[in-house]
Amino acid sequence: MIVGVLFYKAMPISIDQNRISRFSSLELIARQVVEGFITGLHKSPFHGFSVEFAEHRLYNRGESIRNIDWKLFGRTEKLFVKRFEEETNVRCQLVIDHSPSMYFPHDSTQNPDQPSKLLFSVYAAASLFELMRRQRDAIGLSLFSDQLKLHTKNKSNPVHHKYLIGNLELLLDNKLGAIAKQTLATNALHQVAELTHKRSLIVIFSDMMDTSEQAEGLFPALQHLRYNKHEVILFHVFDATKETMLEYENRPYKFIDLETHDVLKLNPVQAQEVYRQSVESKNKELKIKCGQYNIDYIEADINQGFNQILLSYLIKRSKLH
Predict the structure, then answer these.
(1) Does residue 42 belong to any structural domain of this protein?
(2) Residue 73 is part of which domain span?
(3) What CATH number corresponds to the domain at position 134?
């Protein structure tokens, strides 16, 4: 099932596969991480009767005709049996916030080493996608801003993988930020919890900058995911230098809210101390709540680069499991 589509049409900017392939050497570590997330077996080496098609094999006389591919018989006049992969409970849903605030800093290039928050998230998500694809895990994608724009089931077939990568690449165009709506993460996360019917690994990339009216609802939304028995990882994406520390030159600036377009003129040095305390208090509360709900909380400062953040996390998880 697919909920919603991205209506913005443009020639997508391709994800740099060389940067993603750097994680290929961590395949063993990543597999241990995934197996440690959810209780139970990983992809089974045995074949059974599930919805994920694997391959054909020649029919052996005397066996059940239930899985004969009659359409293929019509084309080849030979009997082939469909083989299916036994699915286990390791499924991953990548959830990405693509609201206007995620395009900060809006003047960033398409270079992942100097990214916007969204570019950081896309490359980190694409790296996880590649690891799980190689492990033949089922993967789904959810995108949201003011509402859930896209939600797919988690599947493991190549056609589905190509579709997901295409949607990730659409997000790399900064022009999409101009038509995106303000963040309403609360509603979107509740929808993800309800639409993801089978127990899954939910990986969220967001700056968690919900509107002030909705901010308090973020915690129940995260709790909803855990209540539905999903394993949750939250990559809290931010620019520590500019958004957390407010490190600017000692002169007047005009700050424009990327979501509401409100304008504020001030000298940031004069407001640094109060601002930092407010941001640190908010982030501390989020971190505490994630600990209470048994959610993995990762501080993802885009200035460190997605490689370093993701590598550190994967190594940490491999040691814990």
Answers:
(1) no
(2) 47-85
(3) 3.40.50.410
Which contacts (CB < 8 Å, 24+ apart) does range 303-308 have?
303/239, 303/240, 303/241, 305/112, 305/113, 305/115, 305/120, 306/112, 306/115, 306/120, 306/123, 306/124, 306/127, 307/19, 307/22
Q: Does the bond joining 105 to the residue before it have cis omega, within 30 degrees of 0?
A: yes
- Structure token pair of residue 177: 């930020």
The pLDDT assigned to 106 comes to: 67
Element (H, E) at 31: helix 27-37
- Both 185 and 284 in one domain: the answer is yes
Cross-strand partners of 80: 58
Distance CA 295, CA 223 (A): 9
For 136-150, letters b (16+ CB in 10 Å) and e give ebbbbbbbbbbebbb
Same domain, 140 and 287: yes
- 151-164 pLDDT, tens digit each: 999 888 889 999 99
Burial of 5: CB neighbours in 10 Å, binned 0-12, 13-18, 19+: exposed
Q: How far apart are CA 138 and CA 155, in angstroms?
A: 4
Question: pTM score, two decimals?
Answer: 0.77
